[in-house]
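Team,

Forwarding the record for the chain on the shared tracking sheet. I've put the sequence and predicted structure together so nobody has to dig through attachments.
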Amino acid sequence: MQTNILEYLDATARRVPEKLAFSNGPEGLTFREGHTQARAIGSGLLELGAAGEPVVVFMERHPKMVAGFFGVVYAGCFYVPIDGEMPSFRVELIFQQLKPRFVLCDEKTREQAQSLAPQGAHVLPYDQLAASAINEDALVRVRRNALDTDPIYIVFTSGSTGVPKGVAACHRSVLDYIERLDEVLDVTEDTIFGNQTPLYFDACLKELYSTIRCGSTTYLIPKQLFSFPVKLVEYLNEYKINTVCWVVSALTMISGFKVLDKHIPEYFHTVAFGSEVFPIKQFKLWRAALPNARFINLYGPTEATGMSCWYEVDREFADDEVLPIGRPFPNTGLLLLTEEDRPAAPGEPGEICLRGTCLTLGYYGDFQRTNEVFVQNPLNKAYPELVYRTGDIGKLNDRGELVFLTRKDNQIKHMGHRIELGEIEVVAAAGEGVRGVCCLYEKEKKRLILCYEGECEAAGLARYLRSKLPAYMVPNRIVPVEELPRTPNGKLDRRTLAAQVIE
């Protein structure tokens, strides 16, 4: 039985040692190079006394950063990814929580790593550690004593209090996830991924671990290209990228500026997406441009090791419909629970709850917050069984497909009615000339505020909304914005937007 994620890399490095594994375009690592450097890093960490603890990998987004992740795991430790794009204040909070004894850095991050690391911590330049002699006996000893429930990484998500939460995942969760995901995406040695997400988000798991399992290739696309959609498409075609797993905003950035009219990612055959609802108008532009490609909607929280549900688009949708998130991956259990903790009936909204080996270990060093959302399955009175309460509200449509509605904290009471802000956003996104939308609720003045980016006039959008929505759901203010603020992983940043527009 496979128990360690590194078994993928060991096997693939033997099978296709000279094949390109990870690249940013100008620079790259073959499987042999990545395997060798990772094992050297693991040996170096063991020599310094590392043992079953978090090791911060604080580097620029580069193939060596990926090898650094694997090196930490070879040492029997678990990596915590941080890169130079992350705000300094957030980095400081993470260091304060972890108090790491070991920090892996590169030349660009070395100075900052040294200033933030706890006194006495080892700040280790990548090239220096990767030159360590490989200690086969030590690496074998670590692997022999390892369990599939051992942590493999910690990624930090935003906390409601402003303090980041470190989600710790184990090998078993990642193994099950990647094997099922590869089946859904049909990943092979011929797959060439284009990675869009920062490496300090769990969303990058899809590319990194599918690559070492299947012998694929992943390109780490330079961040700046996502501000220049034509150049981005040129990059995709230059490196013959055929598979992407992107946040929706990265795709709508291309289609919203009509790039697909003249420039098409000609090698794309699999387009997976997630993080937020894909506006149907924009989705149709992609399907028209790539009629032979597969389009797959993925859903899942960080606390459940990335993606938990999938839906391959197999029919046409009206502009005001929502793409389903489909069905759970094999060996993943899904419950829709009402506020009374009973199963939601078909068409009835309920909180999406997940169970199975997909569940992570919880929040590192924070049992209180872990126990708030990783709870006993309320439908199981016979034995201990954890479920994760996602805070997402969904329902089963008339086809029995799961549809995401909104976040639990985006449900409001307005004019005596319970309203899902996501429902308003879906309708608004279908308006002529609208590229992106976000609906907020101003509690003090009891006002609905719709912010949008696009070419249409606010008055025209208001008329359209009055024709589509009941009066109590029509926004009280409609605010055009040049660009909706987003988090580093491409999700709408509602908190920042609220600070900008709420008086």
